[in-house]
Design goal:
9 strands, 9 helices, alpha/beta, Rossmann fold, 297 residues, disordered C terminus
Length: 297
């Protein structure tokens, strides 16, 4: 039996949790994290600040952003700011970058962690629901990438972009977000080639079952099975994703470009994730397979 793995889940825990990175790794850097009020974005903001970066967290809910930046700024030597914005709104994105450049002189790393989805069979999507998810996860990410890249090009500065997407294999019940994130991955691959002469790197991270505040939107019966979606038999944490973000975006990843790093405990080689309850049709099919295998022996 493997020893249970524990990870930070509160601001107080994030400020002291052990990291593999050396202090000062991001000294002098400016990191902009969308979706920074919770989950993976919050963990990334904390880690970036602890490594010496000036961090800007973006999101729609000012209360969440204030809690994160307030906690970060309460620690000696750490620096965090926030920008309220809806990544779907091009004007708000451009205004946010304008203010960041005016106050901080630019950014070095952009982490697109903002996103959203709801579990539902794809046959039941409404047009409004579809557009909401696509606009946030695909168009919103593109807005952030495009504005950042144009700024870097104009200033003749280098930059690094990390897009948080989703695993592409075995993820059921959220086909709308899978479609949107697949678009992000493909665009990132093409942009990584076209933007390389500008010294702009673009990479993606595809998390599997990660224990965040967002778990609450999924049925409890489905969440209970998440640790079984990979051979390590546990869920991952935002901190594990945040450390991967820093590796890819920072000096450790300086020769990595156009890649999607899957972080799912080996789940892509193992099985499936049902964000809704697994339909009886598939449960019975699995039982039939097991029964057939036993009888053949």
């Amino acid at each position: 039996m493997t020893k249970p793995v524990t990870f930070p889940s509160t601001n107080e825990e994030l400020m002291v949790h052990e990291t593999v990175f050396a202090p000062g790794l991001l000294d002098g850097k400016v990191v902009f994290v969308s979706g920074g009020g919770s989950g993976i974005g919050r963990a990334t903001a904390w880690l970036s600040a602890r490594l010496g970066a000036t961090v800007i967290v973006g999101g729609r809910t000012e209360e969440k952003l204030l809690k994160v930046t307030g906690s970060i700024n309460s620690q000696d030597g750490l620096s965090a700011y926030y920008q309220t914005l809806d990544v779907r709104d091009r004007g708000q994105v451009e205004a946010a970058f304008e203010e960041i450049y005016g106050v901080h002189g630019g950014i070095d790393i952009l982490v697109n962690s903002a996103g959203g989805q709801f579990p539902q069979p794809s046959i039941d999507y409404t047009e409004k629901g579809w557009h909401s998810v696509i606009n946030t996860n695909l168009y919103g990410t593109w807005n952030m990438m495009d504005v950042a890249a144009k700024r870097w090009k104009q200033a003749e500065e280098s930059g690094s972009i990390i897009n948080i997407v989703v695993v592409g294999q075995g993820l059921h019940g959220v086909a709308h977000t899978a479609a949107a994130r697949a678009g992000v991955v493909t665009f990132s691959e093409k942009a990584s080639v076209e933007w390389a002469p500008l010294n702009i790197r673009v990479n993606c991270i595809a998390p599997g079952a990660i224990r965040t505040e967002g778990w609450e939107v999924y049925p409890e019966s489905a969440r209970a099975l998440y640790p079984k979606t990979n051979p390590l038999m546990r869920a991952g944490s935002p901190w594990e994703i945040a450390e991967a973000v820093i590796f890819l975006a920072g000096p450790g990843g300086k020769f990595i470009n156009g890649e999607t790093l899957v972080i799912d405990g080996g789940g892509q080689h193992w099985g499936e994730i049902w964000t809704t309850n697994k339909p009886d049709y598939y449960i019975e099919a699995s039982r039939l397979w097991d029964s057939t295998e036993e009888s053949d022996e």
